[in-house]
Amino acid sequence: MLGKNAKLFFGVSMCVLIAAIVLATWGFPKIVQSQINKNLRLENSSAMFEKWRVMPIPLTFKVYVFNVINAEDVNEGAKPILNEIGPYVYKEYREKRILGYGENDTIRYMLKKTFYFDKEASGNLTQDDDVTVINYTYLAALLTVHELMPSAVGLVNSALGSFFTNLTDPFLRVKTRDLFFDGIFLNCAGENSALSLVCGKIKSDKPPNMRLTEDGNGFYFSMFNHLNTTESGPYNMVRGTENIQELGHIVAYNDLTTMRQWGDPYCGQLNGSDGSIFPPMNLGPPERVYIYEPEICRSLYISLVGERNIFNISAYLYEMDESALASKLYNPDNKCFCKKNWSANHDGCLLMGLLNLGPCKGAPALASLPHFYLGSEELLEYFDGGLSPNKDKHESYAYLDATTGVVLKGAQRLQFNIELRNMKAVPQLENVLTGVFPMMWIEEGAEIPADLREELHQAHTLLGYVEAVRWALLGLAILLCVAAAACVSRAGLSPCKRHHSSVSFILRPGNNFDVNKGQ
Ligand SMILES: *[C@@H]1O[C@H](CO)[C@@H](O)[C@H](O)[C@H]1NC(C)=O
Ligand SMILES: *[C@@H]1O[C@H](CO)[C@@H](O)[C@H](O)[C@H]1NC(C)=O
Ligand SMILES: *[C@@H]1O[C@H](CO)[C@@H](O)[C@H](O)[C@H]1NC(C)=O
Ligand SMILES: *[C@@H]1O[C@H](CO)[C@@H](O)[C@H](O)[C@H]1NC(C)=O
Ligand SMILES: *[C@@H]1O[C@H](CO)[C@@H](O)[C@H](O)[C@H]1NC(C)=O
Ligand SMILES: *[C@@H]1O[C@H](CO)[C@@H](O)[C@H](O)[C@H]1NC(C)=O
Ligand SMILES: *[C@@H]1O[C@H](CO)[C@@H](O)[C@H](O)[C@H]1NC(C)=O
Ligand SMILES: *[C@@H]1O[C@H](CO)[C@@H](O)[C@H](O)[C@H]1NC(C)=O
Ligand SMILES: *[C@@H]1O[C@H](CO)[C@@H](O)[C@H](O)[C@H]1NC(C)=O
Q: How far apart are CA 324 and CA 459, in angstroms?
């Protein structure tokens, strides 16, 4: 009887083992992953949805301005000396207005950012500080005219005298408040044909940085006002209910699935997410993750650096590397970003570390990493001091949770520049040296809020337990099997066998016969 039991025991334990193996290698991870996916994907019942819709804590938006110390000397042909002032810290709130669900598993929304000056974080810097920076609007107007009709530059410049007040040099003395948000007044009220030409062009082009005054007689120029409380979009983003690996991908912006600005299907690709959401990492961390930034009309990628521990949570660190803004010689893929000549000395993007924003903004502007980090040495040689690229201060990076892909901490940094060009026909520019002149750089930083961090921490702990249980189960099943196997094999030998045989001896018909015989 026990022999049968031993076999049964063995059989059952084999079944348990197989079940445990299936559970441990396939079932548990599957269950856990589907639970994670359920919490991540964008549907109104998921745990992340509200946090994705309204960011629970604001991003930190920091602005650093390049104050020109020796403006008078630069006018006479000296190399500029810069003095970085900052950070001016703003809180950036982000909120999405859901328009509905779209085809192909997408959600449609408008994005609204709101900025508030953060006095405490800005220390002794105030919005009323006076700075001297490169005069962006002035140079942009001249460079635009120069590109269209080089011979008309001198003429237009004198007309600009009434558009700009006190036109003495290519620098702008301004309060930071006006430069960043409130706006610098540009006067269009005047009887001047060149002036009405310039103003008419601005009115028809409607560049985002130019805000028409209420009476319609002029404009306010500012760097960031158009970002404040103005909705951008609509964005179409993949919700990940069908394929979680597609979660967060932006498939259309302004109802377009590619950007037209670069005039090239490759450079126009919308790749990746808005940087706030990524797919989970269960298939292992991807080598690159893409971020689409409508402000610069580009998809950029950050590359995997390695595994790191941050806030006591295991994470993958991604950093932007030099190939992103590389010259076309170094990264031929970038050549379609080099449509236009931005410089008297350089075609397209011969220099490392610059992105021509002309096609994107409809005005001459150049983006780079702060202090020309990862850029060409040549860019730094133009200055007599004030720039010192530094990895820690100037790179862009993100720490993504190793399981869920949630952003634990990240910073995106970008510098805005314009070319200061020597133009003999323009008295204000006849002696200056030609070079790429930085105006300011910004950092948008995010960190996961403490409560969410705690939640993730608990989830990781729980996952640790689940993992332990999974292996313990497998271990137990194996032990059980070994025990059963031992029992079965011993059934043919000692204690088990003796027991076994004595029992069968008693119950064997022959025994009865023997017993009867004995009687
Ligand atoms: C949740 O989404 C569904 C569509 O998937 C919609 O019908 C429903 O009204 C939404 N519920 C809320 C509370 O928004
Ligand atoms: C949905 O996907 C199909 C096939 O990939 C594509 O033809 C269609 O245009 C997509 N629809 C939208 C609205 O993007
Ligand atoms: C942004 O807009 C809001 C609402 O109009 C305003 O209260 C806030 O002061 C603006 N932010 C800045 C930095 O000007
Ligand atoms: C602001 O504070 C910094 C140190 O925190 C100091 O170096 C700087 O001189 C101060 N600036 C002004 C204008 O007080
Ligand atoms: C223009 O220059 C004059 C004299 O230098 C000065 O009084 C005036 O305030 C300046 N105007 C502006 C708008 O800077
Ligand atoms: C610089 O630009 C401002 C407006 O943006 C204008 O008022 C000022 O006169 C300009 N200065 C020069 C020298 O071009
Ligand atoms: C877009 O992503 C694909 C792969 O997903 C990549 O091959 C391509 O280079 C990316 N395009 C741009 C413009 O970065
Ligand atoms: C990190 O985790 C370990 C063990 O889980 C714990 O002992 C330690 O106190 C934690 N450190 C912080 C800073 O939370
Ligand atoms: C850009 O400038 C270079 C040299 O000035 C010239 O050879 C080239 O044809 C220009 N390219 C375009 C697209 O204008």
A: 35
Tell me how far the alpha carbon of residue 456 lies from the centroid of ligand 8, in angstroms: 14
Pocket flag, ligand 9, residue 341 (CB < 6 Å) = yes
Give the closest residue to 275 by CA, choosing from 94, 15, 21: 94
Name which of 167, 179, 142 is nearest 67 in CA terms. Answer: 179
Q: What is the pLDDT of residues 66-104, one digit of tens each?
A: 999 999 999 999 999 999 998 999 999 999 999 999 889
**In sequence order, what are the beta bridge partners of 356?**
366
Which residues make Cβ contacts (< 8 Å) with residue 397, sequence separation at least 6? 302, 317, 318, 319, 320, 410, 411
pTM: 0.85
SS3 505: helix
Tell me which amino acid residue 371 is.
H
pLDDT per residue as tens digits for the range 448-466: 988 888 988 888 888 888 8
pLDDT in tens, 142-190: 888 787 777 777 777 777 766 666 667 899 999 999 999 999 988 887 7
Domain spans in the chain, listed from the N-terminal domain onward: 1-54+467-495, 57-135+170-183+222-448, 136-168+184-221
Cβ–ligand 7 contact at 368 (below 6 Å): no
**Integer Rg of the chain from CA:** 34
Is 482 in a helix, a strand, or coil? helix
| Atom nearest to 173 CA in ligand 5 | 14
Q: Quick one: which of 444, 441, 443, 423 has its CA closest to 432?
A: 423
Interval between CA 434 and ligand 6 midpoint (Å): 19
Collect all residues with Cβ–Cβ distance below 8 Å to 148 and sequence separation of at least 6.
none
Taking the C-alpha atoms of residue 273 and residue 235, their distance in angstroms, rounded to an integer, is 10
The verdict on the CB of residue 165 being under 6 Å from ligand 5 is yes
- pLDDT tens-digit readout, 280-309: 998 899 999 999 999 899 999 999 999 999
Q: What is the pLDDT at residue 33? A: 83
